[in-house]
Amino acid sequence: MLTRLFREHHLELVRMALLIVGDKPTAEDVVQDVFTAMHDRLDRLHEHHAMLPYARTAVINRCRTVLRRRKLASRLHQHHEPPVWSAESAAMLGEDCREVFEALRSLPRRRREVLVLRYYLNLSDAEIAEVMGVSGGTVKSTMSRALTALAKKLEDS
Protein backbone atom coordinates (compact mmCIF):
# COMPACT_ATOMS: atom_id res chain seq x y z
CA MET A 1 0.00 0.00 0.00
CA LEU A 2 2.72 2.48 1.00
CA THR A 3 4.95 1.35 -1.86
CA ARG A 4 2.16 2.05 -4.33
CA LEU A 5 1.53 5.47 -2.79
CA PHE A 6 5.24 6.23 -3.10
CA ARG A 7 5.40 5.09 -6.72
CA GLU A 8 2.30 6.99 -7.79
CA HIS A 9 2.67 10.22 -5.81
CA HIS A 10 6.34 10.69 -4.93
CA LEU A 11 6.99 13.15 -7.75
CA GLU A 12 3.84 15.16 -6.97
CA LEU A 13 4.83 15.41 -3.30
CA VAL A 14 8.41 16.44 -4.15
CA ARG A 15 7.11 19.15 -6.49
CA MET A 16 4.76 20.42 -3.79
CA ALA A 17 7.61 20.50 -1.26
CA LEU A 18 9.89 22.19 -3.81
CA LEU A 19 7.39 25.02 -4.23
CA ILE A 20 7.37 25.55 -0.47
CA VAL A 21 11.03 25.10 0.52
CA GLY A 22 12.63 26.32 -2.71
CA ASP A 23 15.31 23.70 -3.33
CA LYS A 24 15.13 20.16 -4.67
CA PRO A 25 17.47 18.34 -2.23
CA THR A 26 15.52 19.65 0.77
CA ALA A 27 12.20 18.87 -0.91
CA GLU A 28 13.34 15.29 -1.55
CA ASP A 29 14.52 14.98 2.06
CA VAL A 30 11.15 16.23 3.32
CA VAL A 31 9.21 13.70 1.26
CA GLN A 32 11.57 10.89 2.23
CA ASP A 33 11.17 11.79 5.91
CA VAL A 34 7.39 11.73 5.55
CA PHE A 35 7.40 8.29 3.94
CA THR A 36 9.80 7.00 6.59
CA ALA A 37 7.50 8.32 9.32
CA MET A 38 4.48 6.81 7.59
CA HIS A 39 6.25 3.46 7.36
CA ASP A 40 7.07 3.62 11.06
CA ARG A 41 3.41 4.40 11.83
CA LEU A 42 1.86 2.02 9.33
CA ASP A 43 -0.01 0.20 12.10
CA ARG A 44 -1.65 3.52 13.11
CA LEU A 45 -2.66 4.49 9.59
CA HIS A 46 -5.90 2.53 9.52
CA GLU A 47 -7.74 4.20 6.68
CA HIS A 48 -5.68 3.42 3.61
CA HIS A 49 -7.82 5.64 1.39
CA ALA A 50 -6.75 8.61 3.52
CA MET A 51 -3.02 7.99 3.12
CA LEU A 52 -2.53 10.49 0.29
CA PRO A 53 -4.17 13.40 2.15
CA TYR A 54 -2.18 12.39 5.23
CA ALA A 55 1.05 12.38 3.19
CA ARG A 56 0.27 15.79 1.69
CA THR A 57 -0.44 17.26 5.11
CA ALA A 58 2.70 15.71 6.55
CA VAL A 59 4.81 17.12 3.70
CA ILE A 60 3.39 20.60 4.26
CA ASN A 61 4.02 20.34 7.99
CA ARG A 62 7.59 19.17 7.46
CA CYS A 63 8.18 21.99 4.99
CA ARG A 64 6.95 24.47 7.60
CA THR A 65 9.39 22.98 10.07
CA VAL A 66 12.23 23.35 7.58
CA LEU A 67 11.31 26.99 6.94
CA ARG A 68 11.04 27.74 10.67
CA ARG A 69 14.43 26.20 11.30
CA ARG A 70 15.97 28.13 8.40
CA LYS A 71 14.53 31.35 9.77
CA LEU A 72 15.84 30.58 13.25
CA ALA A 73 19.26 29.62 11.89
CA SER A 74 19.51 32.84 9.89
CA ARG A 75 18.62 34.87 12.97
CA LEU A 76 21.20 33.01 15.03
CA HIS A 77 23.89 33.61 12.43
CA GLN A 78 23.34 37.34 12.28
CA HIS A 79 26.14 39.13 14.06
CA HIS A 80 25.00 41.40 16.80
CA GLU A 81 26.93 43.27 19.38
CA PRO A 82 26.42 41.64 22.75
CA PRO A 83 24.08 43.68 24.91
CA VAL A 84 25.56 45.82 27.62
CA TRP A 85 23.96 44.73 30.86
CA SER A 86 23.78 46.74 33.98
CA ALA A 87 23.83 44.83 37.23
CA GLU A 88 20.20 45.81 37.75
CA SER A 89 19.00 44.62 34.32
CA ALA A 90 20.92 41.35 34.72
CA ALA A 91 19.27 40.79 38.10
CA MET A 92 15.82 41.57 36.66
CA LEU A 93 16.36 39.17 33.76
CA GLY A 94 17.50 36.48 36.18
CA GLU A 95 14.36 37.03 38.27
CA ASP A 96 12.15 36.79 35.16
CA CYS A 97 13.81 33.52 34.12
CA ARG A 98 13.45 32.13 37.62
CA GLU A 99 9.71 32.96 37.63
CA VAL A 100 9.20 31.31 34.23
CA PHE A 101 11.04 28.16 35.32
CA GLU A 102 9.06 27.99 38.57
CA ALA A 103 5.79 28.40 36.70
CA LEU A 104 6.87 25.77 34.18
CA ARG A 105 7.81 23.31 36.93
CA SER A 106 4.41 23.75 38.55
CA LEU A 107 2.55 22.60 35.42
CA PRO A 108 1.37 19.00 35.05
CA ARG A 109 3.96 16.73 33.43
CA ARG A 110 2.37 16.47 29.98
CA ARG A 111 1.87 20.23 29.66
CA ARG A 112 5.42 20.88 30.84
CA GLU A 113 6.80 18.34 28.33
CA VAL A 114 4.90 19.88 25.41
CA LEU A 115 6.24 23.36 26.21
CA VAL A 116 9.80 22.14 26.66
CA LEU A 117 9.75 20.16 23.41
CA ARG A 118 8.33 23.13 21.48
CA TYR A 119 10.15 26.11 22.94
CA TYR A 120 13.44 24.64 24.11
CA LEU A 121 13.98 21.99 21.44
CA ASN A 122 12.00 23.77 18.67
CA LEU A 123 10.17 20.60 17.67
CA SER A 124 7.13 20.66 15.40
CA ASP A 125 3.73 19.32 16.45
CA ALA A 126 4.41 16.13 14.51
CA GLU A 127 7.78 15.66 16.16
CA ILE A 128 6.28 16.31 19.59
CA ALA A 129 3.49 13.84 18.89
CA GLU A 130 6.06 11.26 17.87
CA VAL A 131 8.23 11.85 20.94
CA MET A 132 5.26 11.73 23.32
CA GLY A 133 3.40 8.95 21.53
CA VAL A 134 0.20 10.98 21.14
CA SER A 135 -1.75 12.43 18.22
CA GLY A 136 -1.09 15.85 16.70
CA GLY A 137 -4.49 17.00 17.95
CA THR A 138 -3.51 16.07 21.49
CA VAL A 139 -0.31 18.06 21.10
CA LYS A 140 -2.22 21.13 19.92
CA SER A 141 -4.84 21.00 22.67
CA THR A 142 -2.23 20.31 25.34
CA MET A 143 -0.09 23.18 24.01
CA SER A 144 -3.03 25.58 24.16
CA ARG A 145 -3.90 24.56 27.72
CA ALA A 146 -0.25 24.70 28.78
CA LEU A 147 0.25 28.22 27.43
CA THR A 148 -2.96 29.42 29.09
CA ALA A 149 -1.95 27.87 32.42
CA LEU A 150 1.59 29.24 32.19
CA ALA A 151 0.32 32.75 31.41
CA LYS A 152 -2.06 32.59 34.37
CA LYS A 153 0.68 31.43 36.72
CA LEU A 154 2.98 34.22 35.53
CA GLU A 155 0.21 36.81 35.94
CA ASP A 156 -0.41 35.62 39.50
CA SER A 157 3.25 35.82 40.48
UniProtKB/TrEMBL annotation:
Keyword NADP set for record: no
GO biological process: DNA-templated transcription initiation
RNA polymerase sigma-70 region domain segment(s): 5-71
Domain of life per record: Bacteria
GO MF term list: DNA binding; sigma factor activity
Domain spans labelled RNA polymerase sigma factor 70 region 4 type: 99-150
This protein's UniProt keywords: DNA-binding, Sigma factor, Transcription, Transcription regulation
Pfam families xref list: Sigma70_r2 (PF04542), Sigma70_r4_2 (PF08281)
Protein family: Belongs to the sigma-70 factor family. ECF subfamily.
Protein name: SigE family RNA polymerase sigma factor
Organism this protein belongs to: Actinomadura rudentiformis
